[in-house]
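#struct-queue
[09:14] JT: dropping the first one here, sequence first, then the structure tokens:
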Amino acid sequence: SDIGNLEASAIVTPIARALARRFWPGPLTIVLVAPRRGTMAFRVPDHPLARRLIAASGGGLPVTSANRSGEPDARTAQEVIAQLEGRIALVLDGGTTPGGVSSTVVDCTGDQVKILRQGAITEAEIDEVLATVA
């Protein structure tokens, strides 16, 4: 659930490190090179129960997105079940998600950061962090 744990699974670039420090915990998903898997997406949610589960697991949980690609964001456990029925073993019902806006997804696998999905964190906010990284 922190950058140290992340380094055990992926190659963390200086840009990815700066973005994680600024926006985690929060609605930023960072795609990194993971030597054993190609690429992987990482996020530290700003939800106390999720963070306790991550800490109890030793620092990371493999999870799916809460919605199918191209489908609207699922905001309740019932919506997750409806979209992913038969594809998942467990849904943790933490109530309706706040905000209703997806996480921003950034690809940090190459020399340039690419925003794969605009979400709660804006391109301008990402650019502010990028300007601080040499």
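[09:21] JT: and here's the second one, same format:
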Amino acid sequence: MPLKRLPSFPFPQTKSRATSRDTTALNSKPFKCAVIGGGPSGYFAAIHVSEKLEEYGISHEVDILEGTGKTLQKVRISGGGRCNLLPDTELDLRDNILKCYPRGERELYGPMMRHKPSEILDWFNSRGVETKTEADGRTFPVTDSSQTVIDCLVSSLTPSISVHLKTPITSISKNEDGTYALQTPSGTSTFSSIVFATGSSRSGYTLLQNLNHTLIPPLPSLFTLNSDLIKTGPFSTLSGVSLPHVLCTFNSNSSEITTRGPLLFTHVGLSGPCVLKMSSYAARTLHSLKYETTLTLNFVPGTDSLKLLNEYKTLNPKRKIRGPTPECFKDHSIPKRLWLKLLDNIEIQDKIYAELSKKDLLKISNVLEEFKLHVKGKNTNKDEFVTCGGVDLKEVNFKNMESKVQRGCFVVGECLDVDAVTGGYNFLNCWVGGKVAGKGVADYALENYKG
């Protein structure tokens, strides 16, 4: 039994745009496209598939098939419910934005050159989503509500798009004529093309593998790290302490990875952009180590702390070491609580600066610049859940997001082996991939669909 075309949302009526039922369209029988997955990349792909097909004058129907009872859930929870829509779109594409993709940097260059981040921002702005870019480079709607973005995407659905909730795909097979038969609990429907926007769902990966795609094993990315020193040890009182500028270094047998940014002490370990970036770039290595290793933290990057300490000792000989953090480190905003714990760690007793030996000063310098922290275990980042792994990028044509394995099959978003650091970059991949796939599907229809 074919899927019933009962939209789950009321679609806006547009007078200026032809619909798939237009009798002047090129084809009497509509071109049918299934978008599997009702997340950000699925919605953006469906919108652009429909708009491009209308532009080409091709009668069409687009079905968004969502296995759960809700769509756009990642949009809803992103940024703590504020929706980190994009990064700073004024950043340089090659030197800044693309460097934030540990996997996919090279492949995304072409799509993002054709559809620049600023173009994606303009798309949302032109549809009523006013945005702001904050000091840390993240772009949000001025409403600070993800519902603003959700409403924009829903209202942008054309009358040719239907959303089907609780419609999991149990199997997909390819017919001799190149169409696809999709099996759902309510029956089988045939589509001329399909777009995979299934994110990191296991069922999506299974369907892709059954269509002969190679899967890079999916693993967590963007996670916080646990540490017994912080969870139950001497640093347990530091929960909530944050620093604006920290350098974090991770050494493995194969490479050294260094990240920079704000750091947050949690009740069980470390979080903040500095650690989240590290978890992204080192995702596979950390997995191989079972998330147990030692990180090196530099709390005063870019400074010669030993020189500053010697100068401070000369100027403040009678000041107690176990007082406020020395003013010479004020640019690094090291809280007194952390300063005292670091002194405890190297067993510096309550002395005045004049009593500090060269060895004492060297120990303080080392703990500031090369603090070794043993970490063991991880936690999910509550604001943005991301995985690395997915369809091998060699099997996708990034000029149109079409699979090289199956013609008429398109793959977008997180089901690809593409992921990024936190800050709106993963959504940028969804928006750009969805837009590229929109034209890709329409071009495929123009070339292959006979009606």
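[09:30] RK: nice, looked through the second one.
[09:31] RK: Residues 1-26 have pLDDT under 50 and may be disordered.
[09:31] JT: good to know. The first helix runs from residue 40 to 56.
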